[in-house]
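Priority: medium. Attachment 1 of 2:
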């Protein structure tokens, strides 16, 4: 048992000695005995290195793989052809991480070297860049051994770039933010400030997802301030911001010259007082609804003064709404007013025409003025009128005064009516007559504001001894109601 313990102890000691020996830095006192390649002229220019790589590409790749730096071979291959070579002197004690060399025709690698020569070692130095690291490779002259001297992590500062489009937009329109132009950035951050420098939003982005779309719900000027961060989290220092303007919507002001009118009288709806804080009004849209909420008419005006003259044909209370659009397409909140349309109940009347009196029919020119009372719209009315008749035939006929009180029933443009009348004597030897009056007529003009009619009127006397054949009167005339 004691013998076995001694054997194990000795084996362990040998292993520890071997590991410590393996881990020790190798002292390199001479160079050029085991060259990987030999460079003629001892000057590794780009042209010489290209020839070198064309000839020894396989060996060099094998050496990089052997050293555990296979991922460095392709960057080395691409950059070495145009690399900037520097001459350096490595002082005694300077170390190399590894060196490729050739022994008995085979490519080999030795790691952890220290130059232990008495004089500095002349080398050609060049840098290969990969990711955020700089690899310093050196080639001792005159041999073509490739060595890795050191690796430095070189992380550039992030450079921030931001684009915001469009430069002007309407409320809630999409706003695109693009930071894909940032350099050396792993993450990015965007902050949005309004015109009072109040921060209203923050968004974090990444190099894989450097774009963002947002919207703004209030008008005004906005500033997008951004930062980019490199892989170490260091913030960019260059100014990085962009601006956009959210268009102010126009303000609609709606008025009417007279909001209470009669049927047939025009009402003017005026939106010329509408304004736009950052532009100008380009269009006004009017809409009229009746008391049940039904849209009965619309109108769009694209020219100043943005007004609409409307004639209503029915009475009622109408809701009039207007919206305006500015030169950037923004739409105002609706402005609303009410228009009260009434039916005119009392009209003035003028009527005139030829009149024939009695059997021998004296010819007269008659005219009357009066009032018309609308009892039921377009259905039933009352007419009270009075005037005179001028005799054209002379004696025994004389001019006389007459008055009417009639009720008329309408069926569209046709009307018929009856009532009572009074005329003074048409001859000196005659008395005044109370009469039954009837008329029938046709409205050839009706614009709700005025009515023009033609009519025929017959007057029959009332009273004993007043027969129709000797005392009647007939009139054909024109009537104008306004």
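Attachment 2 of 2:
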């Amino acid at each position: 048992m004691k013998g076995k313990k001694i054997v194990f102890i000795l084996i362990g000691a040998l292993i520890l000695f071997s590991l410590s020996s393996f881990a020790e830095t190798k002292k390199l006192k001479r160079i050029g005995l085991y060259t990987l390649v030999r460079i003629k002229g001892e000057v590794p220019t780009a042209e010489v290195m290209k020839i070198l790589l064309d000839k020894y590409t396989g060996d060099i790749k094998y050496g990089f793989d052997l050293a555990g730096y296979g991922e460095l071979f392709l960057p080395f291959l691409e950059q070495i052809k145009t690399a900037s070579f520097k001459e350096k002197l490595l002082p005694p004690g300077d170390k190399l991480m590894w060196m490729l060399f050739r022994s008995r025709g085979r490519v080999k690698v030795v790691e952890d070297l220290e130059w232990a020569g008495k004089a500095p070692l002349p080398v050609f130095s060049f840098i290969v860049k990969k990711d955020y690291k700089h690899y310093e490779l050196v080639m001792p002259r005159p041999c073509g051994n490739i060595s890795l001297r050191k690796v430095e992590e070189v992380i550039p500062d992030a450079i921030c770039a931001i684009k915001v489009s469009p430069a002007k937009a309407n409320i809630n329109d999409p706003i695109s933010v693009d930071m894909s132009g940032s350099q050396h950035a792993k993450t990015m951050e965007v902050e949005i400030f309004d015109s009072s420098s109040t921060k209203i939003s923050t968004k974090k982005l990444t190099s894989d997802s450097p774009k963002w779309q947002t919207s703004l719900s209030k008008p005004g000027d906005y500033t997008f301030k951004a930062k980019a961060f490199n892989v170490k989290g260091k913030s960019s220092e260059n100014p990085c911001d962009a601006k956009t303007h959210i268009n102010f919507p126009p303000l609609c002001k709606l008025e009417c010259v007279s909001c209470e009118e009669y049927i047939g009288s025009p009402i003017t709806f005026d939106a010329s007082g509408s304004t736009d804080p950052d532009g100008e009004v380009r269009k006004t849209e009017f809409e009229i609804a009746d008391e049940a909420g039904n849209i009965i008419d619309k109108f769009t005006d694209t020219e100043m003064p943005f007004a609409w003259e409307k004639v209503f044909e029915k009475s009622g209370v109408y809701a009039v709404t207007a919206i305006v659009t500015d030169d950037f397409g923004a739409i105002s909140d609706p402005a609303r007013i009410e228009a009260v349309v009434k039916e005119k109940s009392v009209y003035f009347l003028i009527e005139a025409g030829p009149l024939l009196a009695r059997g021998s029919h004296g010819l007269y020119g008659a005219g009357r003025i009066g009032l018309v009372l609308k009892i039921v719209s377009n259905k039933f009315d009352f007419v009270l009128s009075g005037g005179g008749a001028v005799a054209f035939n002379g004696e025994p006929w004389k001019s006389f005064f007459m008055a009417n009180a009639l009720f008329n029933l309408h069926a569209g443009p046709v009307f018929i009516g009856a009532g009572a009348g009074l005329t003074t004597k048409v001859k000196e030897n005659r008395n005044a007559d109370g009469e039954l009056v009837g008329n029938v007529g046709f409205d050839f003009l009706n614009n709700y504001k005025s009515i023009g009619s033609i009519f025929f009127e017959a007057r029959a006397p009332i009273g004993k001894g007043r027969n129709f054949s000797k005392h009647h009167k007939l009139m054909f005339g024109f009537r104008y109601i306004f």
